[in-house]
Amino acid sequence: MLYDALIGPFTEFEFMRRALAAVIALALAGAPIGVFLMLRRMSLVGDAMAHAILPGAAVGFLLSGLNLFAMTAGGLVAGFAVAILAGVVARSTGLKEDASLATFYLASLALGVTIVSIKGTNIDLLHVLFGNILAMDDQTLLVVAFNATVTLLVLAVIYRPLVIESVDPLFLRTVSRAGGPAHLAFLALVVINLVNGFQALGTLLAVGLMILPAGIARFWSRDLTAMICIAVTAAAVSGYAGLVLSFQTRVPSGPAIILVATVLYIVSVLFGRVGGIVRQLFPGRHLEA
Amino acid sequence: MAALHFHNVTLGYDRHPAVHHLSGEVAPGALVAVIGPNGAGKSTLLRGIVGILKPLDGTIHLGGLDARDIAYLPQSAEIDRSFPISVFDFVGTGLWRGTGLFGGIGKAARDKILRAIGAVGLSGFENRPIGTLSGGQMQRVLFARVLLQDASLIVLDEPFNAIDAKTITDLLALVRRWHGEGRTVLAALHDMEMVRNHFTETLVLARGPVAWGPTAEVLTPENLLVAMRMCEAFDDSAAACAADDISSRAA
Ligand SMILES: Nc1ncnc2c1ncn2[C@@H]1O[C@H](COP(=O)(O)OP(=O)(O)OP(=O)(O)O)[C@@H](O)[C@H]1O
Ligand SMILES: [Mg+2]
């Protein structure tokens, strides 16, 4: 009975297996990116970028219908354009990056919705906005896995400068020129993972599988490595549980995954070891030294 | 060969000079104090030396040093103290020069890091997140990182801010050790007693050089008085500078 509910769907249906593989790939690559977004106080930047990829995806849709390849390519181009433009504007004018992004992404979102509604139906719009992880074909799954692999490799290369740049940018600037390239590479990874998540969760929720696990991790550890591991686990668990939930009920898969993550988040806020509410209310007796 | 050579350097912000027409050189292995009132341009000069501020005019020659040979302790570091990194890892970033992007941290490097942490009196704090340190403890962590950087030019901007007397003594001993090892040390300071007792050379700044030379000769009441009279504010309607006339500005 429990087996039927929790494992059955995946042994029985190929589309569920594909969805599970996709969601795990997304968790592996997206969650570490989310942790860095959060620690660099760029959570909302991630959200803004998610909107920014929409017009690109929409142009892909306009040219070739619901073809995920075309939409991915379009999203990547648009995301990079906005990320780099905003990064350059911020670096050359001293304007905070989030402020310059806000401008770009609002424009992009308006443009994107306009483009989709020129050709598509409301159903198409819904698909673009919320994705459909249950409709993954082999090709798409490969793209998702490929992007996740690239992300992990690049992250390994830029990990050290990225950490130093996050803690002490002035120091990195005096000892090396790696800061700028590392930052741009990181923005590129954000875009790649948003486009990746976009297949499964849609533009609006893609960023959820990056940010929510990061938020969860923060309540359980003060150590970066541990935070990344916790975030990946939380994302994978949310993905799996979300798929089961969506299979058993009529909740669409994308929102189901994010809802599970939200529940985990609330539990963490309440019971987390680091700064959780319950812990703060009942801290225990003070120590000797 | 001079470690550092200033050639008619003007440093500043938005075309306003904060350090006006400075020329001179710092010999390798010198121990130089940079003094002057608030707004004199001490930090500005040090920023120019480490390369994070481009001169408005003139040139600074580092005598063949590269950015990695310089260790810089800023007056107020832009450190994100909430970032989850331990004292050990943070101090370890001082090894950047040796490890680069990928180099692992081996046993020898671990020992070095532990010794640097010990040298600033923070043994036992290795695993503490940097966000949990007191202000003075954080300053000592920064000092430990400078120690680890093993640089031939060390630039300290008011390094003893917020540090207790006993630790200052320990850290001054470190500075003297660097001097003994032939490293060039420049430090912006406000404590005249310390300058007199520990620094061989002094540069008095007041938006431009007032005096520069052996401490005993430079640290005179007259020079300090000239420096004190400096006008701190930028003149918004100043015309483009034509000559090196600093004395009229200082008066
Ligand atoms: N980022 C900046 N933009 C514009 N003006 C600046 C900037 N930083 C410093 N200044 C100005 O340059 C002048 C020199 O400043 P600087 O920080 O070098 O002084 P300082 O000698 O280090 O003083 P203190 O003893 O207070 O540290 C001051 O008048 C200051 O207002
Ligand atoms: Mg200063």
UniProtKB/TrEMBL annotation, chain A:
The keyword Glycoprotein does not apply. Pfam families: ABC-3. It comes from the Bacteria. One of its GO terms (biological process) is response to zinc ion. Keywords: Membrane, Transmembrane, Transmembrane helix, Transport. It is a multi-pass membrane protein. Belongs to the ABC-3 integral membrane protein family. GO terms for cellular component: ATP-binding cassette (ABC) transporter complex. It comes from Bradyrhizobium yuanmingense. The keyword Translocase does not apply. InterPro entries: ABC_BtuC-like, ABC_TroCD. It is found in: Cell membrane; Membrane. This is Zinc/manganese transport system permease protein. Its main location: membrane. The chain crosses the membrane at residues 20-39, 44-63, 69-90, 102-120, 140-158, 170-192, 198-217, 224-247, 253-272.
Automatic annotation (TrEMBL), chain B:
The keyword Nucleotide-binding applies. It comes from the Bacteria. GO terms for biological process: zinc ion transport. Keywords: ATP-binding, Ion transport, Nucleotide-binding, Transport, Zinc, Zinc transport. Pfam families: ABC_tran (PF00005). The keyword S-adenosyl-L-methionine does not apply. Residues 4-232 form the ABC transporter domain. GO terms for molecular function: ATP binding; ATP hydrolysis activity. Involved in beta-(1-->2)glucan export. Transmembrane domains (TMD) form a pore in the inner membrane and the ATP-binding domain (NBD) is responsible for energy generation. Belongs to the ABC transporter superfamily. This is Zinc/manganese transport system ATP-binding protein.
